[in-house]
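Example record for the data management plan.
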Amino acid sequence: MKKYSLLLWTFICVLSVSAQTLNDAQIRQRVNQAAAAMKTLQCDFVQIKHLKMLNEEMLAQGKMYYQQSNKLRWEYTNPYTYTFVLNGDKVLLKNQQRNDVIDVNQNKIFREIARIMMSSVVGNSLLDNKTFKTTITINNSEWIATQIPKRKDMRQIFQRIVLHFNPQCAVVSCVEMIEKNGDKTVINLKNIRTNETLNASIFAVH
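Corresponding structural encoding:
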């Protein structure tokens, strides 16, 4: 009887903790812990680009791979093929016609875009107080972090970046990037798998 009472008490405690409303600092801590524990991540994505001037949308699909702490592969598979690979200080841009390798240390804009892509996918940009002013809101199914660029060079590209998190695992499920000209890109991450072994060739830059 004591055993079942203990189990019941434990269950009640778990429910009580889950029901508590996390504050801003607690959410940032949860996301940071999840990012630190995430050795690899792979998923499918659906990207919708809203073009303000043309009042139309462009749909693309692909696969994304991440490996801690500086490897990222962003691969479009439909309706065109295009691959972006970040491996340390090198970026590979690949399409059907050519491959270009760029040293991000020699290209400030590329360095910033690569850094933002990486930190947005993982979610640890919530801790970047120098680049963004971040506000966090909570609804029934997700945490929403709205990031307003502080630096002038970032404001020339983005109005804001909005990250949607799954509270169950504190991992990004959707990224919205609203550009200065009003264009908007929404990327939904699907079939997310973490901490599985990835082939090193996925991040090859040559």
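Summary line stored alongside the record: Confidence is low (pLDDT under 50) at residues 1-20.
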